[in-house]
């Protein structure tokens, strides 16, 4: 495995976990699907997780590893979009199952 | 969030919508084919594999192969020679001279495909450069997708101008979309799948557009640059500063032409020059260009692939007769400059080819998201105007293009494999198959009234075409999986598997009724 590949995998792993938490506990998303079991994050928590999401990108720039930075950014964007789609499908299923 | 007045927001929203609606269907075609073209090299390797996979020039034997090739062609074609590792590792060597065809600059000469292992001649093509590319079978499939992306198969310069304008439309849509969307960050995770079809479509478009915004800027800007540079900028600059002489312009901009000396001289050892490039750069030589082979003023320019951790490769200059190193030079000019730095960044940012498969997979995903944004944008626009008959026709056209284009594209590889078996011209058969499949899907789009049924039909047919591809490849003489595994042809197996998965997903999604496609208002629109 090349250095670039290792850098990309590690940085994406670091970014994706807080991104998942941000998405799951996003206030607007929870409000829109009326999912009250999950508690929305307060602004400070969101800012903290956002910083962790972006941190690997800043480190890659500091290391002058531009190929890894671009792939990380592309991977983060594609994964973020996919994550939102998956959460929307799950939310739709949960809403359908909800007793009226 | 950018605060805008209500009237300004309205204006920008109109610009955003119209820039997308007027050119959206063509833009979708350009983005979708560009997404496929990211894997152009792999497509060639999959459709025309050699028994041994490689993408590198061999360390020894090129010198002998070059001498043999030059001895077999008219010396007038020694004026310019280039070679590089092309389709499935075949070394493509073109010996040519710059000539004029119908008053336009065009290269004419002899092209060889060499086996990268044995250096035996696999194919020999002769004539004008554009005619030669028409009979290059190993590259045929990849070329089809690339040409459709670059110029929509329209003649120069019209195709390039059109794709340049489409790139600008994408740029305008991205900028105005960024400005009008007031809750960019707040709605990053909000995707409502409810019965309200308008809301669903709005969220689908906005979420995909927001996530993909940075790359929309990058791809639209670099795409427009490539289209306009070759269609307009180079001829215009040549007209203004060089009396219309484009060759002189390129020679001046690229820099370092040798002082003319037509004295005959033996050519140096190209293997030694390539070994020196490997030692200096720490990476593999990519594109090799030789000017004035067999003369005292011969020069060799070698460009390398990017080194690990770098976005761009290096360029080295050698004296042809002595094989002596002259200098490491920028791609533009002879000294480092900001212009050169920006110029060399354009290609990796647009093609995503700077870190092998890793960067290509990322660029493919982003291209797919871009196509999705374009299509959902048109569907959102038409849903908002669903009660107006003219717009419902656009909705139908969007379904036709959205699902019919993938079908027409999926039919092309089938033609690629069948054509040689039937003794047909591969390029022609591919083009006509594409047109026939596009026409067929238009007929279906005109006949089928329900848009969801239309989607299911076209998507199902695309799935079947994708599932047929690996089977047809094998039946038409391609290697089976065991032979591919033994020969280390990983791309062949990986591509087959990806196509089978994609085909299965298309077929499976036929059963799924999208809420947006079953909206009552869209269901009964006549053709």
Mass-distribution shape of chain A = elongated
Average pLDDT level of chain A = 89
Give the neighbour order of strands across the main sheet of chain B: 4-3-2-1-5-6-7-8
What series of H and E elements makes up the topology of chain A? HHHH
* Terminal residue distance of chain B: 41 Å
Poorly predicted regions of chain A = none
What is the percentage of strand-forming residues of chain A? under 5%
| Percent in helix of chain B | 55-70%
The largest sheet of chain B is: 8 strands, antiparallel
Q: From the helix content, strand content and strand pairing of chain A, which structural class follows?
A: mainly alpha
Radius of gyration of chain B: 25 Å
Number of DSSP strands of chain A? Answer: 0
Give the number of helices of chain B. 17
Mean pLDDT across all residues of chain B, rounded?
Answer: 89
The greatest interface between two protein chains, and residues involved on each side, is: A-B, 33 and 32 residues
- Alpha-carbon Rg of chain A, integer: 16 Å
Sum up the overall morphology of chain B in one term.
Answer: globular
Characterization of the model:
The complex is a heterodimer of chains A (100) and B (527). Chain A is an all-alpha fold. Chain A has four helices and no strands. Chain A is elongated and about 55 Å long. Chain B has 527 residues and is an alpha+beta fold. Chain B has 17 helices and eight strands. Chain B has helices at 6-37, 40-47, 62-72, 129-134, 140-151, 158-180, 197-242, 246-254, 270-281, 338-351, 356-384, 389-422, 426-447, 451-475, 481-486, 490-510, 520-523, and strands spanning 80-85, 91-101, 104-114, 121-128, 285-291, 299-304, 315-319, 325-329. In chain B, strand 3 (104-114) and strand 4 (121-128) form a beta hairpin. Chain B is globular and about 80 Å long. The two termini of chain B are 41 Å apart. Residues 517-527 of chain B have low confidence and may be disordered. Chains A and B meet through helix 1, helix 2 and helix 4 of A and helix 7 and helix 11 of B.
């Amino acid at each position: 495995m090349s250095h670039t590949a290792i850098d990309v995998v590690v940085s994406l792993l670091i970014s994706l976990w807080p991104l998942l938490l941000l998405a799951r506990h996003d206030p607007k998303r929870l409000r829109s699907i009326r999912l009250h079991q999950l508690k929305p994050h307060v602004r400070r928590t969101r800012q903290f997780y956002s910083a962790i999401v972006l941190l690997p990108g800043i480190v890659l720039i500091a290391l002058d590893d531009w190929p890894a930075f671009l792939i990380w950014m592309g991977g983060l964007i594609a994964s973020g979009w996919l994550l939102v789609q998956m959460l929307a499908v799950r939310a739709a299923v949960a809403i359908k199952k909800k007793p009226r | 969030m950018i605060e805008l007045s209500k009237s300004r927001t309205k204006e920008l929203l109109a610009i955003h919508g119209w820039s997308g609606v007027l050119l959206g269907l063509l833009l979708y075609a350009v983005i979708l084919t560009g997404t496929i073209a990211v894997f152009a090299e792999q497509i060639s390797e999959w459709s025309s594999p050699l028994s041994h996979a490689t993408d590198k020039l061999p360390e020894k034997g090129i010198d002998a192969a070059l001498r043999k090739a030059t001895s077999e062609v008219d010396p007038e074609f020694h004026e310019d020679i280039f070679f590089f590792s092309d389709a499935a590792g075949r070394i493509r060597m073109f010996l040519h001279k710059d000539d004029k065809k119908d008053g336009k600059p065009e290269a004419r000469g002899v092209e060889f495909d060499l086996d990268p292992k044995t250096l035996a001649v696999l194919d020999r093509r002769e004539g004008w450069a554009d005619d030669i590319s028409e009979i290059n079978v190993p590259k045929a499939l990849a070329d089809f997708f690339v040409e459709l992306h670059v110029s929509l198969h329209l003649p120069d310069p019209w195709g390039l101008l059109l794709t340049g304008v489409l790139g600008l439309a994408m740029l305008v849509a991205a900028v105005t979309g960024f400005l009008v969307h007031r809750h960019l960050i707040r709605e990053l995770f909000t995707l409502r799948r409810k019965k309200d079809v308008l809301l669903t479509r709005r969220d689908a478009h906005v979420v995909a557009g927001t996530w993909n915004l940075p790359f929309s800027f990058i791809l639209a800007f670099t795409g427009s640059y490539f289209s306009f540079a070759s269609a307009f900028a180079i001829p215009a600059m040549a007209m203004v500063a060089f009396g219309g002489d484009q060759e002189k312009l390129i020679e001046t901009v690229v820099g370092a032409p040798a002082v003319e000396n037509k004295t005959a001289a033996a050519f140096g050892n190209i293997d030694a020059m390539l070994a020196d490039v490997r030692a200096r750069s720490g990476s593999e030589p990519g594109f090799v260009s030789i000017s004035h082979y067999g003369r005292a003023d011969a020069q060799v320019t070698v460009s390398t692939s990017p080194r690990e951790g770098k976005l761009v490769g290096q360029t080295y200059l050698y004296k042809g007769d002595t094989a002596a190193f002259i200098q490491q030079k920028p791609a533009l000019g002879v000294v480092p400059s900001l212009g050169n730095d920006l110029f060399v960044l354009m290609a990796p940012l647009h093609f995503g080819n700077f870190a092998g498969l890793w960067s290509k997979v990322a660029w493919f995903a982003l291209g797919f998201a871009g196509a999705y944004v374009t299509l959902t944008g048109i569907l959102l626009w038409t849903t908002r105007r669903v009660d107006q008959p003219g717009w419902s026709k656009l909705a139908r056209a969007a379904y036709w293009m959205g699902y019919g284009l993938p079908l027409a594209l999926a039919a092309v590889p089938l033609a690629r494999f069948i054509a040689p078996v039937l003794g047909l011209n591969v390029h022609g058969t591919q083009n006509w198959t594409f047109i026939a499949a596009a026409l067929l899907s238009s007929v279906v789009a005109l006949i089928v009234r329900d848009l969801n049924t239309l989607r299911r039909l076209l998507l199902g047919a695309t799935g079947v075409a994708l599932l047929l591809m690996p089977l047809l490849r094998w039946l038409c003489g391609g290697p089976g999986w065991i032979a591919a595994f033994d020969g280390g042809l990983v791309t062949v197996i990986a591509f087959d598997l990806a196509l089978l998965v994609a085909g299965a997903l298309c077929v499976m999604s036929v059963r799924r009724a999208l809420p947006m496609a079953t909206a009552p208002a869209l269901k009964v629109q006549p053709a």
